[in-house]
Input
Amino acid sequence: MLYSAIKAITYKQPIYTALSAVLLLATASSAVAADSHTQATTLQANDYCDSELQSETPAYKYQSTHQRAMQCMLTQLKEYQQKSMSARQQYFAYKAQAWLTYAIHQDSMNSRSTAGLQAAQFAETILHALKNDTIQDISLHQDIPSNSALMRPDLWATLSALKDSDGITSAPRELAFSEVSLIWAATNQCERGWRESGSHFRMADRWLEQAREAYVNANDSQTNVALQNLIVSYYEQYAPLDTSTDICRGQVLTPIR
Output
């Protein structure tokens, strides 16, 4: 019964093609000049992007140093998204890409929210760990940042259960993209209302469907039953935390396992 209730509140609407393309994009550009709060932020990516940051080629000519750093990080992340890398490396590399996609979007909108800057910093931390082979020190379970909230507990339950069940081995990209989409959606809802969040929630739903399908196909029935039971357990834990008041204040996510 509980599983039926979970599925009943999961929106099965078609994903917007354009928005899917945004997260799948390996590089993105923005010709909009950064405003003062963005210019004041210096990403440490320039430690390994010196030549790109000094470039005067057409791709970079009208971009700020901050924008060039983000573009460079996107390029650097490709190395860790290859099949030859571990599932954990791939997962975090895709997660950093998703954070940068969000940061670039915020920058292109001239947003004065701190969400874009925080997203770029999350990506920078991940890339630094990948470069220094310390990615094991970053937990798979990230608390929801203060500018977002736990909305759609059904989707968060599926995401957490798949992480705990080694789902990143089957679908590192899909899990990474779904997580950032959930955080992005809630931030949008708090800042601009529910009309700005629906497409991102549907995007997260789509990524999670793909991740779960990959997991089910890779495992036996007993393992899949265990996954479903874990999803239900997480849903029971998360449902009381669901914010229905459009207030973003973050959320600590405690792993069951």
Summary: The radius of gyration is 18 Å. DSSP finds eleven helices and no strands in the chain. Residues 2-42 have pLDDT under 50 and may be disordered. Residues 190 and 247 are 6 Å apart (CA to CA).
